[in-house]
Amino acid sequence: MKDKNALDKPYAMLLKQGSTDAFDYFFYKYVDLVFQFSKSYLKSDFEAEEITQQVFIKLWERKASIDPNQVFKSYLFKIVINTIRDTFNAKTKENHFKLEISDYVDEKKEPGHEANFHQYLTILDELIEKLPEKRKEVFILHKKQGLTIHEIAGFLKLSPKTVENTYSSAIKELRKGFADRNISGLILLYSLRFNRINLFA
User: How many domains is the chain built from?
Assistant: First the structure.
């Protein structure tokens, strides 16, 4: 029987060294699994998407501490569980996430991957504009205006579940848009976080 970590190990070594290609390998391999696991605890697509974004940003920020010899999936899900626990323990949602995006851009030195973060934000805005009207409206109300699921539901006169499903569909569509352009999943996650501080208002 093959070592469960055999396929992940070389990518874990590359991720530890700062490879965004290795990050994408893990992001696209595990993102749906992390989302479903988070949803099983939170019972909400809306909250599970938030947790999923946090988990993969933490994975990138903690890449230097990765031990390539451990089972990567176990390492990742420790981050997931701790993030869910923090969410349960917090009295309010995280509103002061400090994004070290300038350091990330300065450190990104891989050939053929010149970082132009404003360009990525422009692409994100273009993709948002192309979303179906209701998905776009829900996404903007949450990410740019900071409204909660219940506030959005009340404002749009929709059920909270409908808002959750609409937001989840919007995120998946944006994720696909970045993937189709061969843009790193990491860039998408940081763009979503950065977008929340109302750059385009």
Answer: 2
Distance of CA 39 to the CA centre of its chain: 15
> Which has the closest alpha carbon to 200: 124, 103, 93?
124
Nearest in space to 25 (alpha carbons), one of 38, 42, 34, 12: 12
In a domain, 94, yes or no: no
Residues of 11-46 as b/e, b for ≥16 C-beta within 10 angstroms? Answer: bbebbeebbbebbbbbbeebbeebbebbbebbebbb
Distances (CA, A) of 66 to 70, 78, 142, 190: 8, 12, 33, 20
Longest Cα pair distance anywhere in the chain, in angstroms?
55
Q: SS3 of 151, please?
A: helix
- Give pLDDT tens digits for 33-71: 999 888 888 777 888 888 899 999 999 999 999 999 999
For residue range 94-126, what is the model confidence (pLDDT) as tens digits?
A: 333 333 333 443 444 444 444 456 677 788 888
**Residue 198 host element (H or E):** none
Closest CA to 10 of 66, 90, 86: 66
The C-alpha atoms of residue 201 and residue 196 are separated, in whole angstroms, by 10
**Structural domain contains residue 50:** yes
- Give me the sign of the Cα torsion angle 187, 27, 192, 102: negative
Query: Where does a domain end: 38, 60, 89?
Result: 89
Q: Please give the helix or strand (H or E) that residue 28 lies within, else none.
A: helix 20-42
Distance between CA 37 and CA 40 in Å, rounded? 5
Indicate if 39 and 107 belong to the same structural domain. Answer: no
